[in-house]
């Protein structure tokens, strides 16, 4: 199975990429997957050009095709101003709006403070619901303090959240129904339709 990881981290090294890698590794421990990581920072100019010209270049088109063909997706973004990054949203805007239909998706985000964790529910989850993806119940948010393993009596640690979300995605991947082959309806020429009507009169 093919698992594509889309990460919108801007810096290098990036906590967003680190979270993406940990999620991918956790899924790979639970299901046999071939992982491909897509760094959107490397495609920023390609994405902008696609908006201006109206079509993606070869490199961006190849990435879009890989996302469309994947069996599952992990999507990770930094949180800016209480929502996903513009680069993250722009990438999914240039995809065909049917690319993620029925596809299992794990959403995750990083930010400086835990106050932005609800961005996963009010921004990312609705975005992927609109794209008709199947989003796993557990969304993973990593604030700065999470990387130290901090937790309190009311929240799971980052490792537990990663494990739970990875298991949910793996379960969807392992039990996903095979893709239905598209059926092309035969087009009957208008003249033949008229002739058939005349014969019945």
Describe the structure.
The chain is of the alpha/beta class and 201 residues long. It has helices at 15-28, 44-53, 58-69, 86-94, 119-130, 158-175, 190-200; strands spanning 2-7, 34-39, 72-80, 83-84, 104-111, 134-135, 140-143. Helix content is 43%, strand content 18%. The model has no long low-confidence stretch (mean pLDDT 88). Strands 1, 2, 3, 4, 5, 6 and 7 form a seven-stranded mixed β-sheet that branches. The protein has seven helices and seven strands; from the N terminus they run E-H-E-H-H-E-E-H-E-H-E-E-H-H. It has a single domain, classed as Rossmann fold, CATH 3.40.50.360.
Quick recap:
Helix content is 43%, strand content 18%. By secondary structure, it is of the alpha/beta class. The relative contact order is 0.15.
């Amino acid at each position: 199975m093919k698992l594509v990881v889309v990460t919108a981290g801007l810096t290098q090294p990036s906590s967003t990429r680190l979270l993406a890698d940990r999620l991918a590794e956790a899924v790979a421990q639970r299901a046999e997957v071939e992982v491909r990581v897509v760094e959107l920072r490397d495609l920023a100019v390609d994405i902008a050009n696609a908006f201006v010209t109206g079509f993606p270049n070869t490199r961006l088109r190849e990435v879009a095709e890989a996302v469309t063909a994947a069996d599952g997706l992990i999507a990770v973004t930094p949180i800016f101003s209480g929502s996903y990054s513009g680069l993250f949203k722009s990438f999914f805007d240039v995809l065909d709006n049917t690319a993620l239909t029925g596809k299992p998706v794990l959403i995750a985000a990083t930010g400086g403070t835990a106050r932005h964790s609800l961005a996963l529910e009010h921004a990312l989850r609705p975005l992927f619901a609109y794209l008709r993806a199947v989003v796993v119940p557990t969304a993973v948010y990593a604030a700065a303090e999470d990387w130290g393993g901090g937790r309190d009596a009311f929240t799971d640690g980052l490792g537990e959240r990663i494990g739970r979300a990875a298991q949910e995605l793996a379960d969807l991947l392992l039990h996903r129904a095979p893709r239905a082959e598209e059926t092309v309806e035969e087009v009957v020429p208008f003249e033949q339709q008229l002739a058939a009507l005349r014969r019945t009169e």
